[in-house]
Amino acid sequence: MNGLSVTSISGILWLSVTFSPCLAAQTWQQHEKHEGFELFSETLVDSQEIVRELSDVRRELDGLLQLGHGNQNVEVVIFSSNNSYRNYLSAQLPEAVRRRAVFYKSGQTFQIYTFRHAELAVDLRHEYTHALLHQTLPFVPLWIDEGLAEFMEERPEQRAKSSRQSSMKWRCRTGWKPSLKQLEQIPSASAMTQDHYRDSWAWISFLASESAATRTLLRTYLQAISAGEAPGSFSEWVQSRDPEVINRVGSYFRRIRISLR
Predict the structure, then answer these.
(1) What is the pLDDT of residues 188-201, one digit of tens each?
(2) Both 176 and 118 in a single domain?
């Protein structure tokens, strides 16, 4: 995709504005290069913790999707406060200043903008997932892009006791299930609602967690896109491979056991 991706837990926008921030013009308290990303911070942060979080995301996505690595560096920019963050973005990107984090992509430029706050690790994991996907895929279906970013927000050990799991189990108890075809029909990122984010997460969680077969379905679909193919919608593509997958998502969440520890 071309343009600007503005993402956060609360939404994603694709904008046509031209935005060319110059990091060299800013004074940074911390500037470090690490494998897969370059850190610019307006305040001192625990860079080793950030390295661990982003390395874990990269490693898990590698195992799940097996798409290889892009050669582009991701610039991670952390401001000292929400005010500083908003002041920096307001001139070039007023649509994004109310969001906690921004993923910017234009050509070979990949940047993440955020500020120091309690959920910094969550936001970095989310936005870095977007960056890795867009490094290796010519396009990413919207529900997969957001579903994977939402899924990767939580560390693997947190997912079994996630409130999202219990909420989806409760919703599916009467036979309801998240509609994949509805997700595939979302016309644009700006049209995504909180329900769409929830259901995108649910579908990715199901495909990544139910079985080796569902993981293979997700992986081979994205590998087809990576190879330059046009596999069509996932719901149509999966129909000829495992038509029961569409019906199993609800029962998967109904069966799930929620960890209280």
Answers:
(1) 888 999 999 999 99
(2) no
